[in-house]
Structure formats: C-alpha cells, structure tokens
Amino acid sequence: MCSGKTTERQGYCEEHVHLATGWQRTQQGKNSTERGYGGHWRKLRRVVMQRDGGLCQPCRQAGRITSASAVDHIVPKGEGGTDSHDNLQAICSPCHKAKTQQEATRARQGDT
After folding, report:
1. Is-contact 45 68, C-beta < 8 A?
2. In this protein, which residues make up the domain named HNH nuclease (predicted)?
3. For a disulfide at 95, which of 22, 25, 58, 70, Cβ 3.0-4.6 Å?
C-alpha cells in the first residue's frame, strides 16, 4: 500500500519512484556542465534564441507571440534527439512544462 509520502525531487512515493523518468534518475546530483549544458550549450542556446528572435516557437505555430525563456530539444535527447540546430527551438516556460510532461508520460508508458 502506498504511504502517500512523496520524494522531494520526483514527487513519487518510495514505492512508486520507479515510475519517474529515467532522465530524472540519471541526472540527480549533476551540475549543468555534467548534464551536457556547459559552455558549448550556452553558445548554442544564444544562437538558437537569436535565430528564433527570442520568441516561443510552439506559440508562434499556434498564432501567439510569446517571449521564450529556454531552448528546447524538439526531439528529446532521451528519444534520440541531438543538439543540431534543426532540433532546437526557443520555447516559453508554459510550453516547455507541457512538452516535458508529455515526454515524461511517454517515457513512463514506454512509448518513446
């Protein structure tokens, strides 16, 4: 029976922590450089933000103009995506959060 207590980082109880995405488990305790987001990523991020005009690309596709706050892998690295320019997009926080939740759901269901 589930205790109802959740872990601080994943939000899962100890009994169900295995449902957390593999990415989360492998990234715990690592700084941004160790996760692959060091100097090279910061330069790449600047290029993509400039290319996309600092605007969220999913919002633009939906006819909205929203400032981007991050650069996102269109196809996640965990699903075979790369750091190539054509696999990166500027994205706002709400779109990034929704996309990340969809990716986590697919990972838990084994649909990657």
Report:
1. no
2. 43-97
3. 58
